[in-house]
Amino acid sequence: GRRGARMGRIGGRMGAVSARMAMVQARLAGRPARDLANARAELQELRGELDQLRTQLDEVRADSDPDMEALSHKMSELSAQHAALLKQVREQVRDIATRARREGKAERPHANA
């Protein structure tokens, strides 16, 4: 959760920087050539800031916490056990329903029921 929150904060900052870049680029579209140098410098600065944020985000993603790896492994094991049990239960229910229909204790459900 904490890692996700950090990633969200960095992503939010990246969005804000991208919005500022879009505003500068929009201003550039209507400016005469003599004003381009300042705007280009500002864009270059914003690109640098965006690169730094991308690097931070990559570091957060790469930060492998041993506890998270162990938890992920345990969750995978439990998921496999759950799938096996679910398959087993479905087969048992199918067998019970088949036996009940065969013995006249249940009816086959109708398609329009």
Q: How is the secondary structure organized here?
A:
Elements: H1 2-29, H2 36-62, H3 66-102
Structural class: mainly alpha
Q: DSSP strand (E) fraction?
A: under 5%
Radius of gyration from CA coordinates: 30 Å
- Please tally the β strands and state the result: 0
Sequence stretches where pLDDT stays below 50 over 5 or more residues: none
The separation of the N and C termini measures: 46 Å
Can you summarize the main beta sheet?
none
- Globular, elongated, flat, extended or rod-shaped: what is the shape? elongated
| Average pLDDT taken over every residue | 83
In percent, how helical is the residue content? over 70%
Order of helices and strands: HHH
Q: Give the helix tally.
A: 3
Outline:
With 113 residues, this protein is mainly alpha-helical. It has helices at 2-29, 36-62, 66-102.
Summarize the structure in words:
With 113 residues, the chain is an all-alpha fold. Helix content is 81%, strand content 0%. The two termini are 46 Å apart.
Features:
single chain, 113 residues, mainly alpha, 3 helices
